[in-house]
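Researcher: Let's try something more involved. This one mixes different molecule types, so please make sure each is placed in the same coordinate frame as the others.
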Amino acid sequence: MKFRVYAVVGATLSGIGFLHANLSTAQDNAPIDLSGVWSANSFDTLENPGWDIVGLFSCRCALETYDYLNSLLNDRANDNMNAVEIIEALEEHTREIIANRLTDRGRADWDAFDLADDPAIQCEPFPSFRTSLHSDPIVFETYADHILIKGEDLTVDRTVYIDGRGHPENLEPSPAGHSIGWYEDGAFVVETVGVIPSLVDDQLTLLSSDQAHSVERYWLSNDGRQLQTQFTIHDPVMLKAPLTIHRPRVLTPDVELDRAPCEAIAGQF
Amino acid sequence: MKTKALLFLCGALTMTASAFAHHNFAAHYIGDEIIEHTGVVTEFRFVNPHARVYFEITNADGSNEIWMAEGDASVALRRSGWTPDRIKPGDSIHVVGSPARNGTNTMSWYTISLGGTNIGGGDGRLAERAAILNRRLAEHRSQRGR
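Model: All components are placed in one shared frame. Result:
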C-alpha cells in the first residue's frame, strides 16, 4: 500500500499558518467526478428521487444539528411535530450552537448586526464563504490546473487551483479570496483564504473577520445522486472553535444555471 | 382598508422561508405580523433578488395607494414554471404577507390569489414546501421500523 503525505506548509496569510497533513492510500486521493448541476432542497427539487428524508429536511445547519434531525425523524416521541416545526427546531438548534461558539467579539457583532445592512439587498455579490453556503444550484467545471465552481446570480465564481500550488504570500483580501483544492479520502477538499470580512450567511447572521479561512469537503454518495458538502469556518476572532455547516445536494441534470441580473429596490420601493 | 391579523401559520413560516431566499426577508418585513390587500396590478417585476408586484388599492375613503409586494426570486419561480407574464397589469389580486419594518407601502407576500386561486410564489414558498414535506414525513413515519 502506497502512502503519501500531503502537506502545504508555510503559506502565511494575516499571521495564520496552515498545515495540511493527510495519510491515506493513493487510490483514496484519486480525483472524483463532480460534473453536473447540484441543487439543494429548494422547492423545485423536492420530488427528486435522490432525496432521502434527511436530505429533504436538510438546512444550512451545524453538523451537530443532523444528529438532532435524526432524533426528530426517528424518535416516536417527536411524531407530533409537523414539517414546519421540525425546520424551525433545526434552525434554533444551530443558532444555539453558534451562539455558544462565538467569542465576545463575535457575539457583539452577532447581536449588533442588522439584516437591513445585508449588502445583497443592494445586489452586491456574495463573497466566497456565503457563496459556498448559498442554496442556489452549483456546477463544477474541471480544467487542467483548476476547478471552477459556479453558482447563480449573486454568487461569485470560485477558482480552485488543483495544481499543488499554495496560497500566495501578501494576498490582498478580496470577495473571492484564494482557493486551493486537493482530493483526499474520496473527497474534494477546498481551502479558501484571503476573503474580505463579510456576512458569512444571512440566515445564521454570522460575520467573518480578516483572520477567517474555510475548508470545504465535497463527496459523493454511493449511488452518485447526492453530493455531501461540509463547510468549516476557522475564525479565531469570531469563533472559539471552528464551525462546520453540513448540507447535501442532489444531482439535477435538468437544471440549468440561471444567471439573471439582480435589480435592487430603489427609493420607497 | 388595511386589515391586520396574526396568522399563526404565516408567522411560523417567516423565520424559515428565508433559508431559500437571496436575502433574509426579516431585513425588511415584520414576520410575525400579517396584512392582506386586494388591488389591481400595475406592474410585475420578474427579477432577482426577489420578484415584485406593484398594485393599486382603493381605501375606504376612496383614495388610492400604490403598494409593492416582494416574493421569491425569479430564478426559483422560473423553475416552477413561472414566466414574466404570470401576473399582468390589470389583474385583480389578493395578497397576504408581512408589513414593512419602515412603515412604507411594501410587504412580503406569502400568497397571491389571482382570480380566486392562490398561485403561491411567495417568500421561500414554505407553505408549498411544507405540504410536500408533511406528506413525505407521514410516509417516513408510517414506514419506519417495519
